[in-house]
Amino acid sequence: MPIGQHLFRSTALVTGAGRGIGLGIATALAKAGFQVALTDIDEDSAARSASLLGDQGYPTLAMKLDVTQADAWAHAVGEVTARWGGLDLLVNNAGISPRGTIESTDEALWDRTLAINLKGPWLGIKASLPSLQRRQGTIVNIGSTRATRPMPGLFSYVTSKAGLLGLTRQVAVETLGQGVTCNMVAPGWVDTPGERLIQAEQGRPDFPQGVSNLTTPEDVGGAVVFLASPAGRKVNGIILYLDSGLHVADDAGMVYLPDEQSVRYHQPIANPFTPPSEPRS
């Protein structure tokens, strides 16, 4: 059954779904008619979020999943297929975004970042592919603008997300003709509990103050729903940016310094088509 037809029967597995972007994705999918398996390394958060959706009448399943372990993936996919008969959509969302330069990143941090952000999606795709092939399903990897626009101080993270884009395209090529699609959704700045903790550790306890045009978890969820819909099934092997133009326009007007006369990276440019006396929006 191609995904998008009879959505009430379609089944999705979302990693890192206990909170933040993952929960936003799971919520959007549930509202679109999917049965959703919410998985997370934090089993309690997955259970709380699944219960929240279940209380609203949406069919859900909560599971602990360490995405770096092949056996854990086999168990999770087996549970989903046993409960709901198959899998139509895999969303690889679980990830970490540690700070560190090429000099300050040690082997332990490098290995952990690549294991979660890149090895995890590969293991998930490998475990899920037989079911996705049977149901002509789809894979959505949650990446980042930083996959193609590096930023200083995010050494292992940027490398892992660039690798995830390569994985996305390679899977799309290898599954051509099987009815399976694979794409990456790339948010820019997203206000999540995890990001707030990271920013606080970096001396920004006021985050997201000073950042505009934020992407929301709900925005990411909407993009995933689209890619899994009939309208999105012709999209394959692409990176879909959800970053207000960050990947093409420096900060895309997202980061500003309230006490300065300029925004980060560049001076404000007046709109030549706006009369000086007319206020700009």
Automatic annotation (TrEMBL):
Alphabetized, the UniProt keywords read:
Oxidoreductase
Q: Which InterPro entries match?
A: NAD(P)-bd_dom_sf (IPR036291), Sc_DH/Rdtase_CS (IPR020904), SDR (IPR050259), SDR_fam (IPR002347)
Enumerate the PROSITE patterns for this protein: ADH_SHORT
- On the tree of life, the source organism's domain of life is Bacteria
Any one Gene Ontology biological process term?
Answer: monocarboxylic acid metabolic process
GO MF term list: oxidoreductase activity
Q: Does the keyword Oxidoreductase apply?
A: yes
So what EC number does this one have? 1.-.-.-
Q: Which Pfam families match?
A: adh_short_C2
Instruction: Give the family per the record.
Output: Belongs to the short-chain dehydrogenases/reductases (SDR) family.
Q: What is this protein called?
A: SDR family oxidoreductase
